[in-house]
Every structure is written in structure tokens, then in C-alpha cells.
Write a structure and sequence with these properties.
210 residues; alpha+beta; Glutaredoxin; 4-stranded mixed β-sheet; 9 helices; 55% helix; globular; Thioredoxin-like_sf
């Protein structure tokens, strides 16, 4: 069974959904997973102001209630001059995919999410992203260096590959993140859009014949 997940590391519902995806893959060890980076706010230039912080905190409370995952609210409120651009962190996941294609990309993806939502790191900074990326890959048994990661992250080909992911998500008619698909009869069937508990995912897959 091949699953395809369209998601963005700086989408709070995707953060909550990451835990459910890991549980699903534990239940379905035969399944493979492809992650398509969403580019939720790729290229955004507006600074996160107080209204933007409160808007996100409202969603964070809902995600925390649904998923039980922690959020660093103080870290968000303390941010000054932060531009909520999701392209750099999406590109960091792509860089990890390029460098170590054999690694468990979902765990890498979740490490970047943790860096933003819990550690309150600046996930638009290439050096920060490189350090998060090498830590995640090393933990998974696929070490690399910060220099190699940062160089890969900066490459034009990596920027282009991330942009291709964004275009692929749009071509798949993804209108919200996360959206999960399963490949069936050479086509992608939508399992669900938005946050869902692992039991609900199992029910949807069963209804599709899996």
C-alpha cells in the first residue's frame, strides 16, 4: 500500500496529524509513504504581528485539544519581526530527502515541526534548519554534516524541487493541509483532508478496500 501525504511543517493541523500518521504506519508496516511538501505560505513576506499570533494561537489550542501534542505559546508570543514563510522549512525537508532518501522522512518532517512548535526555533534560518536536519538524520542512523545539509538546502536544484512539490500539491487539487491519499488502481484516492484520528484513517482505508 502506497500512501501520499500533502502537508506543510508549519501547518498546525499537520503537526497534530503527524502523530496519527506514525500510528497508522505502525499498524500498517507494509505501507510506504511519500510526503509532498505543501508550501502553505511559501514566499510570504509579511511580518507576524499580534493579530497573526492570536489567530495562530486559536488554532494551536484546538490542535492541542485534538492531538494532545504540546505547543510553545510563549515562544510564539515572544517572536519579533518573524516572517511566516514556510518555503525554507519545506525546502529543508526536501534537502533531507535528497541527502538521505533511505531515511524515514516522516520522522524528519516531525523533527522540523517540533523545532517550530515546541522549541520555538527560527525555521526560516538555513543554519537553524541544517542543525535540526542533521540531528534528525543522525538519530535515524543516517548522519551528515551541517555544511553538507546547508549546501544542499541552498542549491537551486533543491529550491526547484521544493517548488515542484508545491505545484504537485496544487495539481492534486489539495485545498487544505494535511491531505492523505492512497494509490489505488494506478490512481490516487483521497483518504481524508484535515486532521483525523488513526482509527478514522483505518475506517477510510477499509472503505476504499485496504
Amino acid at each position: 500500500m502506497e500512501l501520499v501525504l500533502a502537508a506543510d511543517p508549519m501547518c498546525s493541523w499537520c503537526y497534530g496529524f503527524g502523530k496519527e500518521m506514525e500510528l497508522l504506519l505502525e499498524r500498517r508496516p507494509e505501507a510506504s509513504l511519500q510526503i509532498i511538501l505543501g508550501g502553505l505560505r511559501a514566499g510570504a513576506t509579511d511580518v507576524l504581528d499580534d493579530a497573526g499570533k492570536q489567530f495562530r494561537l486559536h488554532h494551536w489550542v484546538r490542535v492541542e485539544e485534538a492531538s494532545g501534542l504540546p505547543f510553545n505559546r510563549e515562544g510564539l508570543l515572544a517572536r519579533q519581526g518573524f516572517v511566516y514563510d514556510t518555503e525554507p522549512i519545506c525546502r529543508a525537508v526536501v534537502a533531507a530527502r535528497i541527502l538521505r532518501p533511505e531515511a524515514n522522512l516522516l520522522k524528519v518532517f516531525r523533527a522540523f515541526q517540533h523545532a517550530f512548535y515546541v522549541d520555538a526555533l527560527d525555521t526560516t534560518d538555513g543554519v537553524v534548519l541544517a542543525n535540526v536536519g542533521i540531528s534528525a538524520l543522525t538519530t535515524l542512523g543516517h548522519p551528515t554534516t551541517a555544511e553538507e545539509f546547508l549546501e544542499t538546502w541552498k542549491r537551486g536544484s533543491t529550491i526547484a524541487e521544493a517548488a515542484n512539490d508545491f505545484a504537485t500539491a496544487r495539481a492534486m487539487s489539495v485545498s487544505s493541509f494535511p491531505t492523505l491519499f492512497v494509490r489505488k488502481d494506478a490512481r490516487l484516492a483521497r483518504v481524508g483532508a484535515g486532521y483525523a484520528h488513526v482509527d478514522a484513517l483505518e475506517q477510510h482505508l477499509s472503505a476504499l478496500g485496504f
